[in-house]
Amino acid sequence: MATQVPTVIPLCRNLCASSGNCHALTAQADEPGRVQIHPEDARLAGIVQDELVWVASRRGKVISRAEISDRVNQGAVYMTYQWWIGACNELTIDSLDPVAKTPEFKYCAVRLEKIEDAAWAEHYVMESYRQMKQRLAKAAKPLS
């Protein structure tokens, strides 16, 4: 079920996330990204802490783990974009800003969709990650 709450998403980088030296991030490497949701928006959508949800836009949808937080404004959600699974750039558009000529990769309208079958969602994430690792291994060339 999708929320009827108008929701926007700013996409941001998690400081130091591109370095493999951060133990906290390395420990979460097999996890999808997290989407921060205001408590009232989560309540209206029936979404609870740490459950997997769909974050959808007109351009696509990704699976992400819910993080209920009053750090975000009601009517908005927040995601970082460095995760392997739940790559939130799949939600955005590459239209260019008329002045700066930069793509609009950091902001878009989205809706949250509760996933009723939690076991299916957890399996989907694990299987997606397994398939991605296989594709990467196949594409990698052995060192000579």
TrEMBL record:
Single annotated GO MF: metal ion binding
Keyword Oxidoreductase appears in the UniProt entry: yes
Keywords: Metal-binding, Oxidoreductase
GO terms (BP aspect): respiratory electron transport chain
InterPro entries, per the entry: Asp_de-COase-like_dom_sf, MoPterin_dinucl-bd_dom, Mopterin_OxRdtase_prok_CS, Prok_molybdopt-oxidoreductase
Recorded superkingdom: Bacteria
GO cellular component entries: membrane; oxidoreductase complex
Molybdopterin dinucleotide-binding domain: residues covered: 23-109
Protein name in UniProt: Formate dehydrogenase
Species annotation: Pantoea deleyi
